Automatic annotation (TrEMBL):
It is found in: Cell membrane. PROSITE patterns: ABC_TM1. The chain crosses the membrane at residues 41-61, 100-123, 135-155, 175-195, 243-269, 289-311. It comes from the Bacteria. The keyword Lipoprotein does not apply. This is Sugar ABC transporter permease. One of its GO terms (biological process) is transmembrane transport. Keywords: Cell membrane, Membrane, Transmembrane, Transmembrane helix, Transport. It holds the Pfam family BPD_transp_1.
Length: 320
């Protein structure tokens, strides 16, 4: 049987249609208006929503006002319009930070997702000490980032650290992970994957637990192999959770200040400086609140665009 025929049967199995069935979907009923219970729930949630909106709206509005002025931390300064945005967008340091932020985000999102999904699928099988293994895998996410970054600094920061000593014993020479620009970037990205994969693992575990095993049995009956089961059943069935986790992890990575600042401080020679670190330095080290808030607002706009794009993908997902 060809892969095309097997793929069609697997898709029919995903829709819950027998191999000899017609594959017709049940007619959808018309939409009903909101019920009294729904309206009551909305009214109960409304005060909290308004409070959260006010708590988040004020900083955004104040930051927007600061971004069009040439003020400092103690003075609002004069109105300069979009001059701060123009200065930021023409600065080589901004684009260098944007490039590292992009790399850091891509590695953080897809690296942690790949590791988390692989471990989630592994934990679905019966392995010795599975429960203890699950608890241990959550430690990188549960332990405060200050403790984790301090441990990684002890492992790689100085020539007397364990990993540089091990590299020298293996004949690799004296490897300074946080002093070399390339190695520092790799170390920061790997560190982000290390502290983020437990979150992805929990998301994917919950999504995989909701998949009916009968769907896989139907796929096996139709002749699908493991690769086809994974690509044509598992991935489509968990796609909603996958897109949601990508949105959340993108926000976590772009706004991640402590991971980078505690591990490298943005160095060496600004190689690991992300946009959020650059915004912090501009505002609190150089006392230029206008360009600093302009960088933050550009980050916010980018995150909104990425979130909207991924959310549209969620709405397009069809697992029926």
């Amino acid at each position: 049987m060809t892969d095309l025929a097997i793929g069609e049967r697997v898709r029919r199995a995903r829709r819950g249609v027998a191999p000899g069935g017609s594959g017709r979907q049940r007619p959808q009923t018309g939409r009903r208006g909101p019920s009294a219970r729904t309206l009551t729930m909305l009214l109960l949630v409304l005060p909290s929503v308004l409070l959260i909106a006010l708590l988040n709206l004020y900083p955004v509005l104040y930051g927007s006002l600061q971004s069009v002025r040439d003020g400092t931390l103690i003075s609002e300064g004069d109105f300069v319009g979009l001059e701060n945005f123009a200065d930021v967008l023409t600065s080589p340091g901004f684009w260098a930070a944007a490039r590292f932020t992009l790399i850091f985000t891509l590695v953080g999102v897809f690296g942690s997702w790949a590791v988390g999904l692989a471990l989630a699928m592994l934990l679905r099988t019966r392995i010795p000490g599975g429960r203890a293994f699950k608890v241990l895998l959550l430690l990188p996410w549960v332990v405060p980032v200050v403790v984790t970054s301090t441990s990684w600094n002890w492992l790689v920061a100085t020539p007397q650290s364990p990993l540089p000593i091990l590299g020298e014993l293996l004949g690799l020479g004296r490897v300074l992970f946080l002093a070399d620009p390339l190695l520092a970037s790799i170390t920061v990205c790997v560190f982000k994957v290390w502290i983020s994969f437990p979150f992805m693992m929990m998301m994917m575990s919950a999504s995989l637990a909701a998949v009916d095993e009968n769907v896989y049995e139907a796929g096996r009956v139709d002749g699908a192999n493991r690769r086809q089961l994974f690509t044509q059943l598992t991935l489509p069935l968990i796609s909603r959770s996958t897109y949601i986790s990508w949105i959340l992890m993108t926000i976590f990575c772009v706004n991640d200040f402590p991971t980078i600042f505690l591990l490298t401080g943005g160095g060496p020679v600004n190689t690991t400086t992300s946009l959020v670190v650059l915004s912090y330095r501009t505002t609190f080290a150089q006392y230029q609140t206008g360009p600093g808030t302009a960088i933050a607002l550009l980050m916010t706009a980018t995150l909104v665009i990425v979130s909207v794009v991924l959310y549209r993908q969620i709405r397009k997902v069809d697992i029926a």
